[in-house]
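LAB NOTEBOOK - FOLDING QUEUE
OPERATOR: T.R.
BATCH SIZE: 2
PURPOSE: Compare the predicted structure-token outputs for two unrelated chains run back to back under identical settings.
PRIORITY: normal
REVIEWER: second-year student, initials M.K.

ITEM 1
FIELD SEQUENCE / FIELD STRUCTURE:
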Amino acid sequence: MPLTSFEHSDPYTLGIELEMQIVSPPGYDLSYASSRLNIFSAFPDNGPAPFVSDWQEFSWMYQRLETSGIVESVKDLHWDIRPSPKFGTVEVRVMDTPLTLSRAVNIAGFIQALAHWLLSERPFVPRSEDYLLYRFNRFQACRFGLEGLLTDVRTGEQRTLAEDILPLLDTLAPYAAELKGESALEAIHAEVQRRENDTAQIRRFMAEGGLLTELVREHCEIWAGE
């Protein structure tokens, strides 16, 4: 995501991105579609970035953290979404947990199309009050996956992630095409329609009597098989 769109990131759509990842529970089912974010949520540098309206406000905030000795670089801030001044991009930190490389690539393609749409259309002006619902939507995505209930920060309308992803994919389709990323959105569309994700795959394996060690081996075989 280009750095210039940092102040236009949408806390509502992050839930969609979180659902597309998967973290294996530590030996037993915690009933979460993704447990990683909850594991790290106790740390002060995790979760949503503080709201800023422009790059100048972000620079001031970062300088305050740096001069206080809390961080030495932007890499020390493990927010869900963070800027990378070195590369001129915005990092969305969900691509290192899917079971397959192709899934990670598809998520990246989705985020690129989303960023292109945000930059081109400017569909909303971000407000600090939008973040009041951020952690609630984040929890729904982590806990229930595609069946998680998202609340629109502007209208209050509620719908499941699956119900929200499909029309959003239609909106993003022409922007993905400009980036030659149609295949990423097509793959995500098919998975959502089947209600299929990595969580379901892991749970099926465990329900059939698989052990944790076998699950790790299965993950390696899935990764190597691409």
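ITEM 2
FIELD SEQUENCE / FIELD STRUCTURE:
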Amino acid sequence: MKKGGMKTRLAGLLYLLLTVLGPFSMMFVPSQVVSTADGVRTVHLLEHAGLFRLGIASDLLVVLTELALTALLFVAFEGVGRTLALVSTFARLAMTVLQAGNVVLSLAALRAPADSTLALLDLHGDALHVWEVTFALHCVLLGVLVFRHGAIPRVFGVLLAIAGVGYGLNGLGTLVAPELGAVFAQVVALTAIVGEVPFVGYLLVKGLPAAPARASAS
């Protein structure tokens, strides 16, 4: 196996790991810690403290995984367009920094007085939508890089860009119009699966072929 193929398959494995860690800490854990009944939201942090801490550990693994994956993607695509690859990389790094900050909010929720816990958890959720916007930019630019690569089916680039639009809509849309959050969440769930999963599968199965010499490096 060529060295480049090993790196891109590793990127695929890291991407796959994120599809497990992310939903666990961002969706499952919050669903257990906060419940809603008759329009009243209740925090169950003390009852699920162990699960909540496990979610924090998962978030930290996400941050570490993102750092490695971001580097691998830059190495894989800088030859296609260095400027685009750099912007895409910085967008994903910005997301990772914000994710790390969110871990601090989770730790604060553990130590805060009971009457402040829900507010901190809500802030944690809002911060998620902030980094989602930077991730949207990364996905769109990565889609452009894949589309321009020349040795990867261009449909994967289009699908990644669609995923980026979905993330941007959910992130920015939920912050601006939170009453439509459920609708935006359904949209991003569809676009993320359709847009990212095929690319991850391609990386795992075939790896990333070298870009043809004609690919632009600007």
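REVIEWER COMMENT (ITEM 2): Residues 3-206 form one domain.
FOLLOW-UP: none requested
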